Amino acid sequence: MPAANRPEELRGLKTDELQQKLAVLTEERFRLEFRRATESLTNPLQLRSIRRDIARIQTILKERASA
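and the corresponding structure tokens:
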């Protein structure tokens, strides 16, 4: 994912938008993990970036749930 997923920009999104983005990233992560198991990835760092974006979104959603 591009660097557009900074925490400040993610906090500006609504909860529904964050949940949709989380679903898309989770699906993309699954596809990359599957492809990594069967062949080599062209950009292996993309997987790390997606995992971190997922963690950022989950953190923001937990903050909102506890507030």
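(Above: one complete record from the training split.) The chain has one domain: 7-66.
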